[in-house]
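name: query_chain
kind: protein
chains: 1
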Amino acid sequence: MSEKKDVNRIERKESNSGQVSYSDPITLHETSKTKIDFIPFYIPRSDGTDLAAKIVTYKKAPPPNDWMTKENKSISLNEKTARNLLKELKNHFAVAKNTDDDGNYILINVSEGKADYQDLETESVAEAVINILRQEDIVQHLTSKELGSELTSAFRGAIRLDELRSAISSLRNKLDSGITSEQDYQEWCEKHSWAFGNAYIVKDEIRSISATDNVDLLLPSAITGYRDLIELKRPDKDVLKFDSSHQNYYFSHEVTKTIGQCHRYLDVFQEEALKGLRDSPEIMAYHPRATIVIGRSNGWDDEKVKALHGLNSRLNKISIMTYDQLLIQGERLVEILGSSLHDEEDDIDNLEMWDEDDFD
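structure:
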């Protein structure tokens, strides 16, 4: 029967000086011309024993010397250095074992339920985790585990926050690039109705409020379930005009026309949906409100912003906002949601959205 090699025998011997101990050299590499040995040394300390090491390189020599030490290719390692070498060998063996591709790799030590990523940038770690979660086998494994409410909430919150940031970036890019197509902004608002305030969490697929009237968006209130209207116009349309003779701002022709349009929508919707729409009885309206999104305000001064606020306050159940104000409102929601992930005392319901006084 062949001898098993699963068990290694190590003998620790005292050196001639009596100050340290050592073990027999272990040959790491040997050819007909060179040999590399690892020699362990045990150094007593007041709090235990350190393991030091010496890596010795030999060159084949004529008899009787046999092997001669090459000092310039030999090195001594104290315990700290030896441990660092061991750690780095493990790390790089992990890379070599798990991939054949060149690139950047992050190694995270996981023990006792905690991940130690030391001085790695958190952004890099997050990107690595996201890439891991794209692997189907990892996702399947996670679904079979009880992650706990805190971890589940953290995942959901972080993923949701990333989606909201991406949405806000998309809207900003549309505005900055000069896109004016009403359809583009309608598609964005349909996907991200949350930007109109935390009172609205979803949208209805229904747009028809009567046999002849279609609105851009119907948003149900998260509290009452009653629907409000959103009417979208192009961002390149004027919102306010200035009357130099009277030194005041007034609504542009496009805004005035849309206000009239919304008045009709509100009357029809109130009548048609008081007890639920005929074909969609779950869609109900009771004193509905309308928000008109039109134009830009990124270059406005304080006086013009104040003028829009004043004109809004004198409208009944209708409010005008610009696409820049919608963008700012969405950014504030993302900012508060991001803070709440780090501070559970932050309450997203305290977010000040578009001033509801504008509807009174």
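note: The radius of gyration is 36 Å.
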